[in-house]
Amino acid sequence: MTDGARLQGARWRTLYWWILAVVFAAGTALPFIWMVATSFKTEPDAFAHPLSLVAHPFTLVEYAKLVALEPFGLYFLNSAVAAVSGTLGVLITSTLAGYAVARLRFRSRTVVFFVVLGTMMIPTQVTMIPSFLIMRFLGWINTYWVLTVPYLVSPFGVFIMRQAFSVLPRELEEAAEIDGCGRLRGLWSVFLPNVTTSLATVVIFTFTAIWNDFFWPLVMTSSSRMWTLQVGLASMQNQIPGRWPIIMAGTFLVTLPMLVIFLMFQRYFVQGYVSSGLK
Amino acid sequence: MTRRRVKEELTGLAFVSPALLWVALFMAFPFLFSIFISVHSWSLLSSTIRYDGLANYDHLFHDPTFYLALKNTFVFAAGNVLGSAVMALVFALLVVRETRASVYFRVIYYLPVVISIIAASSLWVYLYNPSAGPIDGLLNLAGLPSVQWLSSPRLALPSIILMSVWKNAGYYMVIFLAGLKAIPRGYHEAASIDGASAAKTFWRITLPLLKPSIMLVVIMAMINAIQVFAQVYVMTAGGPVGSTMVLVYYLFQEAFVNFRMGYASAVGIVLFVILLLVSLVEFKLLSTDVDYA
Q1: Backbone angles phi, psi at A266, to 5 degrees
Q2: Is some CB atom of chain B closer than 8 A to the CB atom of A114?
Q3: ipTM, 2 decimals?
Q4: pLDDT tens digits for B216-250?
Q5: CATH of A65-275 given 3.40.50.2000, 1.10.3720.10, 3.40.190.10, 3.40.50.150
Q6: Interchain CB contact of A110 with B (< 8 Å)
Q7: Would you place residue B1 in the very low, low, confident or very high pLDDT band (cuts 50, 70, 90)?
């Protein structure tokens, strides 16, 4: 093969690459663009021009209707209460348990770790019925208890923090001891500054998981004043079927916080390449 | 034991106690409780609880809806696993090189992963709508008739599979990216020096060396797919005529619509056993790892 032919081949390959990459990107992204565009359309416009990517005329009236029709502010508040308190709780409980299992020489630590890890094998769908009966027995159905306490611990969080603490050098214990720190002080001032990436991963993972959770709040709340955004959005589909601009407005509002968080912290989502060196 | 050892022991237990308490209250006890419920006739409507032995399981194994749900769950899982894995691998191969464009395309391919399954389902109900949806718009543009994506018994399940592949492929792309990067450079260089074509290099070198990632993706996708629920809840409610009835939706319906807690728990236990078997197969297959040496 001559150099010229090789160069030509490389050009063709680049062209094919761009065509494929763009086609798949369009397939992935077009639904989002339609969602946003339709949310700003009037109903007649949405029906007449389902393919158009710009609203004509552009209107915010469907958002106004949405807020009048559904207590979206309340759903948002409930989702935020669950996600924020759960994320803080998981941060604390995972750090304590992960640190203890990784760095403290107490006898039951291996058993504890495998018990916590083993529960990741039990899907929440299987325990949903007994959990419902327990929550009902406690009188927690349709209260904030059911949207907060069950989210305070995450076996996955314990696992991540245990991995993070276990790779730190032995000298850190000595440093903490020289400073005369107790265990808790040492954990706070010597160990935590060394695991900030893992803490960020736990925060992002937990917040996303709780914000997007559906089955648990669906089962545990029947009164709409306790609904989260996900439960509220799911009910819209049944209550006002076929009113696409308003439904897309709701869908976009539910999606927006996650999209913002993702675009701000995308390297934590895509941990695969963080570990392979791309920053 | 020295005082120091006792103190270490107590500190350790104190630190793990919140996690352990949670596991006991929200995982271990409910799991054992669900086995207990499954051997009772337990109705929330009439508030009657009666020991029933294995009657729930006996009914279950003679229940045509259960078999329908089982079949649909596995059809969904097979389609979703195959579709997601292939799309994820195509995405990963496209964006594996560290160019600026690749990084942007990764973000785009990953977008559907971060939105909630409810938002994604809601969005696709609109996309699939045969009178006002954009997919219908595309069909009309091509001069084709409208298609009843979600209201035809033949197409409803494949439509949910397609939407789920769109939602999940980016997630598994990340695993394939890590796998592709773990393949030592030397293999592809050697193949290129030997004058092997790109296709041959892919089939003979990349794919076999990617086996651990492929297994991981297949098993993870399988376990997730078997638990499918929200898509069905929003998009079809198990219909039309049971064509999208899946195990978890059946469990939900029996427990929280018909309030038959015992029977629904039996469905849950069967679901658990299925997931356990799939996981065991996972460990067996993953332990036969590829050796790069």
Answers
A1: -60, -25
A2: no
A3: 0.89
A4: 899 889 999 999 999 999 999 998 999 999 999 99
A5: 1.10.3720.10
A6: no
A7: low
* Cα–Cα nearest to A212, from B111, B116, B120: B116
Is B162 a domain residue?
yes
Which of B29, B95, B122 to mutate: most A Cβ within 10 Å? Answer: B122
Identify whether B129 is part of a domain: yes
Domain count, chain B: 1
Question: What contacts A86, CB < 8 A, 6 or more positions away?
Answer: A148, A151, A152, A206, A207, A210
Residue range(s) defining the domain that contains residue B248? 56-287
Would you state the pLDDT for residue A269? Answer: 77
Closest residue of chain B to A235, computed from CA coordinates: B234
Tell me the residues of chain B between 238 and 267 that have a Cβ less than 8 Å away from chain A.
248, 251-252, 255-256, 261, 264-265
| Domain range list for chain A | 3-59, 65-275
Could you tell me the sign of the dihedral formed by the alpha carbons of A237, A242, A243, A247, in that order? Answer: positive
Domain annotation covers residue B254: yes
Least reliable range by pLDDT among A144-153, B8-17, B72-81:
B8-17
Write out the two tokens for A250: 């709701």
B116, B135 Cβ separation under 8 angstroms: no
Number of H helices, E strands in chain B: 15, 2
Note which residues in 185-224 of chain B have CB less than 8 A from chain A: none
> Which CATH number fits the domain that encloses residue B274?
1.10.3720.10
- Across the interface, whether the CB atoms of B37 and A96 are under 8 A apart is answered no
- Window 63-82 of B: residues touching A by CB (8 A cutoff) are none
Asked if the Cβ–Cβ distance from A123 to B227 is below 8 Å, we say yes
Q: Which residue of A has its CA nearest to B279?
A: A121
